[in-house]
């Protein structure tokens, strides 16, 4: 689809696409769709050529998939492969795009702000820099459930005030669901405090404390790579993680991508923004169902879909076309 048609087709819809971040990967992802749609293998080949190693092998075998520097380009490529299958099958062009953390890069590629080749190089570097920013075992992340956002922030501030490191709210995923990140000991402290406040706390199996101030050294190095990467304003509106707003110039977009490494992911505000813009249908374009399940809980979202299998893709295609009034 041409850029002009892409923009025109998006204007009349009530559909948004959301792209998942790290944690949605699974061994064997997209294998079924790859058998039917050549564009899946072609997309992985394009990304693999850019990096010089086989991303499809990593995705299917699981070898090295848990290493951040590999996880990020594999997930990005899988999301773009699904996006291309969707368009190939005549799927509706969404009015808005948004991506959770790493998923913001998938959204930018889908919106033609950067090429897939450039994007996989960026996120491969991003993963390396994030991994090297904090020594193994010194950082941690945890999900805090059942407490209001302000209480979680207060617990983080109290723990950080001890002077033994820092812990911060990293992802505002939904009302009553905040992920914290920072120094491992302080994350444990906040988890214990949250449980005392009748909340729940779940340690996340990650090796990197993302979206907190511990990532600032990585962000400084990453900014240099961003400056050397060709980026244009997206052809479809992409809601940014750090402020739940749409960039109005490329400099602002680069700045937001840099800040994304050490600032909180504002997913609750992002989904609120989509609802305020009249979005009623959400399609999760990537492996898994994390974001579509979150969307189903929202008052103004009528339907949310995942498209990471043949059956799910077909269901979403038909349901969205019917909901948008494109077919009876």
Automatic annotation (TrEMBL):
Keyword Flavoprotein attributed: no
Active-site residue list: 101, 211
Keywords for the protein's UniProt record, in alphabetical order: Acyltransferase, Transferase
Protein name: Malonyl CoA-acyl carrier protein transacylase
Biological classification of the source: Bacteria, Pseudomonadati, Pseudomonadota, Gammaproteobacteria, Moraxellales
Organism field: Acinetobacter suaedae
UniProt similarity note: Belongs to the fabD family.
Coiled coil: none
EC number of the protein: 2.3.1.39
Pfam families: Acyl_transf_1 (PF00698)
Record field: catalytic activity: holo-[ACP] + malonyl-CoA = malonyl-[ACP] + CoA
Domain Malonyl-CoA:ACP transacylase (MAT): 18-325
Entry GO terms, CC: cytosol
Matching SMART domains: PKS_AT
Listed NCBIfam families: fabD
An annotated GO BP: fatty acid biosynthetic process
GO molecular function: [acyl-carrier-protein] S-malonyltransferase activity
């Amino acid at each position: 689809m041409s850029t002009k048609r892409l923009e025109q087709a998006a204007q009349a819809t009530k559909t948004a696409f959301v792209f998942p971040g790290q944690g949605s990967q699974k061994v064997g992802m997209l294998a079924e769709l790859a058998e039917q749609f050549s564009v899946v293998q072609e997309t992985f080949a394009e990304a693999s050529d850019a990096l010089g190693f086989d991303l499809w092998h990593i995705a299917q075998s699981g070898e090295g998939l848990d290493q951040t520097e590999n996880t990020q380009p594999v997930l990005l490529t899988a999301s773009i492969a699904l996006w291309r299958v969707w368009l190939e099958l005549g799927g509706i062009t969404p009015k808005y795009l948004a991506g959770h953390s790493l998923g913001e890069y998938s959204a930018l590629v889908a919106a033609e702000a950067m090429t897939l080749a450039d994007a996989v190089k960026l996120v491969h570097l991003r993963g390396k820099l994030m991994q090297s920013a904090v020594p193994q075992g010194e950082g941690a992340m945890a999900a805090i459930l059942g407490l209001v956002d302000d209480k979680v922030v207060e617990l983080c501030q109290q723990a950080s005030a001890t002077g033994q490191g820092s812990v911060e709210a990293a992802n505002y995923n939904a009302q009553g669901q905040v992920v914290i990140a920072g120094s491992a000991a302080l994350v444990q402290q906040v988890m214990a405090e949250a449980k005392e406040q009748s909340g729940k706390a779940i340690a996340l199996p990650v090796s990197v404390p993302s979206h907190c101030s511990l990532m600032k050294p990585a962000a400084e190095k990453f900014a240099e790579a961003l400056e050397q990467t060709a980026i244009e304003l997206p052809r479809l509106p992409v809601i940014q993680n750090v402020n739940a707003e749409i960039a109005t110039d490329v400099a602002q977009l680069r700045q937001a991508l840099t800040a994304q490494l050490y600032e909180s992911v504002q997913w609750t505000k992002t989904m609120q923004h989509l609802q305020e813009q009249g979005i009623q249908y959400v399609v999760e374009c990537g492996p898994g169902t994390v974001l579509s399940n979150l969307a189903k809980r929202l008052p103004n979202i009528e339907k949310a879909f995942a498209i990471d299998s043949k059956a799910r893709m077909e269901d979403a295609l038909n349901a969205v076309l019917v909901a948008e009034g494109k077919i009876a």
